[in-house]
């Protein structure tokens, strides 16, 4: 090949733009400021290109997926009306229609009457459970003391079975778009990812705003290594692990030891039991954050107060509760119940 052809080929290669660069530039033109991902081929190349154009990249350790299927409409309970489409587009269409034809559900209707009565009875039952002084604590006692100290503008992330369901009824939100949880399908593993995303935005836009991530001990296990991500970026997150030694229910240490007398754990341990008194707070301290192990309301109050006051370090409070503690009876099935 002649020198002129080699020079022309070299100039052509220098003028080429990588696919990663094209993706990064396209995202930047759409005002994307943050990118979350799992490093690997081809994500590494895209992440580097994104940083070059000014997009902030947060490297995660656990991958998630989202799927929207028309087939899910009507699963579990048959709805009177179904809406299929992008949530932003559908919401915009609904608001535009309400602007044209203002309407609200009559406040004195029978439906509102029944709903208010149900709210009142639920509140009374929750207060009764929260007032119990016995140890180990129950879910309601824990959430009552947490609610007392929650900053009004904090983001609340919750994940778990009983932890999330009870937390929804006790932990209050006062501002829109400040609660993130696994939703009615009970998807596990999303909590820490939600918390990290919220904390990145809070740290940039409103320094001092806190993210409170409330996890069941089983839920924490799905993506607990994201604690390293939290510490790597020094995010303003307070993690609360509500620990009952199991999935829904577990055993205390004495019961666990007694059970093992009858055989190996693989043959005698109920599948929903986890190792009693696991010290999840050490996961946080291993990466440089603050960790607390609490068993009483007083210890919970003190550790939460210290965590909220410390704006320089993330923290994890491992809260031991009654292993056999449950919630009040559930009136409706999970949406994962098949309609077949």
Automatic annotation (TrEMBL):
GO MF: 2-hydroxyacyl-CoA lyase activity; metal ion binding; thiamine pyrophosphate binding
Domain (Thiamine pyrophosphate enzyme TPP-binding): residue spans on this chain: 163-319
Any GO BP: fatty acid alpha-oxidation
Coiled coil, from the record: none
Catalytic activity as recorded in UniProt: an (R)-2-hydroxy-long-chain-fatty acyl-CoA = a long-chain fatty aldehyde + formyl-CoA; a 2-hydroxy-3-methyl fatty acyl-CoA = a 2-methyl-branched fatty aldehyde + formyl-CoA
Pfam family, any one: TPP_enzyme_N
GO CC terms: peroxisome
Domain Thiamine pyrophosphate enzyme N-terminal TPP-binding, residue spans: 18-76
Keyword Lyase on entry: yes
EC code: 4.1.2.63
Required cofactor names: thiamine diphosphate
Keyword Disulfide bond part of the UniProt annotation: no
This protein's UniProt keywords: Lyase, Magnesium, Metal-binding, Thiamine pyrophosphate
PANTHER family reported for this sequence: 2-HYDROXYACYL-COA LYASE, 2-HYDROXYACYL-COA LYASE 1
Descriptive protein name: 2-hydroxyacyl-CoA lyase
Native organism: Bos mutus grunniens (Wild yak)
Gene: HACL1
